[in-house]
Structure formats: structure tokens, C-alpha cells
Target: 3-beta hydroxysteroid dehydrogenase
Amino acid sequence: MNVFITGATGWIGSATVDELLRAGYKVVGLARSDVSAASLEEKGATALRGDLDDLDALRRGASEAEAVIHLANKHDWANPTESDRAERAAVETLAETLIGTDRPFIVANAISGLVQGRPVLEADPSPAVGPGSDRGGSENLALDYVGRGVRTIITRFAPTVHGTGDWGFINFLISAARRQGVSGYIGDGSNAWSAVHRSDAARLLRLGLEKAPAGSRLHAIAEEAITTRSIAEAIGRTLDIPVASIASEDADAHFGLVGSFFKLSMTGSSERTRELLGWTPASPTLMDDIKAGAYKHVGKP
Model:
């Protein structure tokens, strides 16, 4: 099977390319630069030059593939409206190209913001509908194409997809801890995050490609709830610095951009996903990674 992947050289995408190549798939990855193209070709994948705004490249990649995995996102925190616009345009372009083919179309989303007060379930629909909503309402947009001959599969990721080389939320928390000389948590630290190792996430994507029916919502979640205090304490032990509670009103100043997320509980269940795919996470936990020094390089001068 020939699989087209956007975000193929990103944190999750690069692991997914490796997973698919090991399983014997042919992979074409969207590449924004010569460096990205070269990294794909060195692995044995094929590079298609373009980015999320190059809709012709997206059409070409999707039309020539037997499956599409859409992982790319601009993540422009300074201009989220632009990120949402680009995400919706990309999903619409890819889905329109796949109409009537019954080919798998995996679309990434996050569990954050979907429900409040309890873990997000696979059965929970996304409240984001329409161009002006989070991620341009791309999850619901993609699911609208199920009735038009597209095997849409939504994959929602935990807020931390961790591992050696991670540049996500944990990276920012450790940078803040080094900068402040204190590993902080907010309030009593009872807010919790779900987590998954990137290699487990990549394997889930392959299994979803192979097994998930149209309209599925999959959850890439290995650990359902790790308290933010536990995360801060693990960071403190690793960096050998104090651990302290940070007042909510001081969170942005202490943590920077990630402070607004660290205030929240972002948890979900993957029970249905595991039953559907036979997926059993087997990689190190978040605490294992922090303890083993996967992030010790972060924030060093």
C-alpha cells in the first residue's frame, strides 16, 4: 500500500513513517524543504515537495495514494486563526480528492477542549463545527465525507506525546523549570494529563489504517491521568531543583505559553480503541522517560 503523509518529518509523523516502512508500506511524505525531503529519502520514503498551503501538492499526494494520514498543522500560536484556516482547507482538499474511493483518510486531532470534568471518550463528538471553530472544525468536516465514499478515521492524541527528542509541552515545562530554578505545578497539582509514547502512537496509526472502519474515533492514549504535580515532581528530581506550587494568576509568567494548558485537566480514555485495534501500549511511560533523562538536554545553554 502506498501511503501519503502530511507532517511526515514532524514529531509524530517521523515515527509513523518509520513504523510504516518497517511494516512494508510505501510512503510518500509532504516535505517543505530540501532538508525535510532528504531526511525522508534517506529512510527509503519518497518526498513530495509542498506545504499545507500548496493545495495542488495535497491533491496530487492524495490522488496517487491508497491511504492518507494527515498529521501536519501550522501550530501558529501567535495567529491561531491562520492555523485553523489552513487546517480546514487542507482537510477539505484531501477529502474532496478521496471522494468515492473508500480509501483510508486518517485525520489528527487533540483531546483537549472536547469535554470538561471527565475523561474524553471515543464516543464523544467534537464540539468544533464550522470554519470559525478550533482547528477549523476539521474533525467534523472529515467525518462528513464518510457518506461520500471516504473511510475517514479520526485519531485524537494525548496532550503529551513523549519520547527522546520531544519538543512538545514537556519540553516547555522543563525549559521553564530550568529558567525559574523551580519545577512548578499549579494550585494543588491535582489537574491531570493523559500521555502516550510516540512509538505507541505511530503503531496505533498503522493499526488504524489496517483495521478501523469508516467513522471511527481513535484515542492515542496510553496513560489516562498523570497529575500535573507528579509531572513537576519528576522534573524536579531529574533536574535536582525544588518543586513548588505556582498560583494560577502567576502561571503564564512562570511557565510561558504552556501555562494556560498546564492549568487544565486534559484526559481521555482509550478503552474502545484498544478493543477495536488490539492495541496495547508497550513503550516507556512519561515518568520512565523523564527519569531516564530523555529531557535532560532541554533548556541547557
Observations:
- The chain has a mean pLDDT of 95.
- The first strand starts at residue 2 and ends at 6.
- DSSP finds twelve helices and twelve strands in the chain.
